[in-house]
Amino acid sequence: MSEEPRTPHAAHPRHAAPHAPVLLEAAEAPARGGVTLIIPTFNEAGNITELLDRLAASLTTSLPAGPPYSVLFVDDSTDDTPEVIEKAAPGCPFPVAVLHRETADGGLGGAVVEGIKRAAGDWVVVMDADLQHPPHLVPELIGEGERTGADLVVASRYLPGGSRAGLAGGYRVAVSRGATWLAKGLFPRALRGISDPMSGFFAIRRSAVTAEALRPLGYKILLELAVRPQLPLGGAPSRPARTAEVPFVFQERHAGESKSTAREGMRFLAHLAALRSATPLARMIGFGLVGLSGFVPNLLALWLLTRAGMHYLPAEIAANQAGVLWNFALIEGLLFRDRRRHRHWADRLGRFALLANADLLLRLPLIGLFVARFGLPVLPATALALVTTFVLRFAATEALVYLPRRRPRRGPRRPRTPRTARTTKS
């Protein structure tokens, strides 16, 4: 660290001289080695004062020789959390700001990305506001990163010395452990060296993350940072090159209620699917698996329609539409979730159905061509036609239904800066 030493504050940090209200993005360049703590909040009014007390007690002990800290709350609350932050901020020995979002886009993960976009200095630390992440470990995370040269330092419950004791009940323990196994099983290379990919407590070098490349969904932002390839300026797609871990004991919630719900669990599964299908090859494999699963509703609808007395030919056509709807729903939710905004859902459905039905019309002439022109037996010709139309349908679906919108090139927008001890709406 090369910044100048700071003068220690008074014995109890909450009674130290208050930090003057300033913009987080000051006119001068941020001090080298500076740390921004990003704390996403949703109705955490009962935890704010105690959290800032403990942060002040922990961080001021490292101020004479350590990096300068600032705290940014990114708030989606419907209670008085922003007002509590505003009231508590003037007594802190470091800058405290709150950015209140009118819409909680991306959930907790989206809040963290908004914070990363506004962070200054070398390091970003992400932690929860409920005190289940012990504030005294913040300097240790930074110290471990500087000592090892790591880009990402994760606070892990599964290292020796760590514990998940704060998880309430065996159900939450089982869900957390199962989610960890699932994530590591799906991404063995990207998560190698990270024993706790479900952790919400970590530090990352600001230079190792490109906020604009992130597509968070729900509250597992660490997965997004560790798994999704990012695009640093002037470089090839990359992830944090080196990781490190420190053990921590997951504490009991200080006040309020847990935000972990069944809905968040479903968002987590959708996020895993989106991350796993981020490459074209993975999307093609997923597209094929979804297509195979479409035989189930197709055959079920065919059975119901013919049992009701419909002739088998119109029943085949109607049943095929049931499979199309099934495939469209899965592809929308699992494979192309981040490409849906540029076209209305009815437009996407119409295009997808047109391509799916055109597949039937194309397949028969192809079978005839393979049999008559190339002399293939019927079964190999049918299999080859299925493969050919599948590849063509995948390429057409990606290009004609989910092609990302091209945006005109513009200069970078200057983000709205949250003010210390004042609420800024986004």
Query: Which percent band covers the strand fraction?
Result: 5-15%
How would a crystallographer describe the biggest sheet? 8 strands, mixed
Number of helices: 12
Terminal Cα span? 34 Å
Structural class: alpha/beta
Strand order of the largest sheet: 7-5-6-4-1-2-3-8
Low-confidence stretches: 1-31, 231-237, 419-423
What is the string of helix and strand elements? Answer: EHEHEHEHEHEHEHHHHHHE
Task: Give the beta-strand count.
Answer: 8
Radius of gyration, Cα only, in angstroms? 26 Å
Summarize model confidence as the mean pLDDT.
Answer: 75
SSE map:
Elements: E1 35-41, H1 45-59, E2 69-75, H2 81-88, E3 96-100, H3 107-118, E4 123-126, H4 138-148, E5 152-156, H5 169-186, E6 202-205, H6 221-227, E7 243-247, H7 262-276, H8 280-293, H9 295-307, H10 312-335, H11 345-372, H12 378-401, E8 423-425
Parallel strand pairs: 1-2, 1-4, 2-3, 3-8, 5-7
Antiparallel strand pairs: 4-6, 5-6
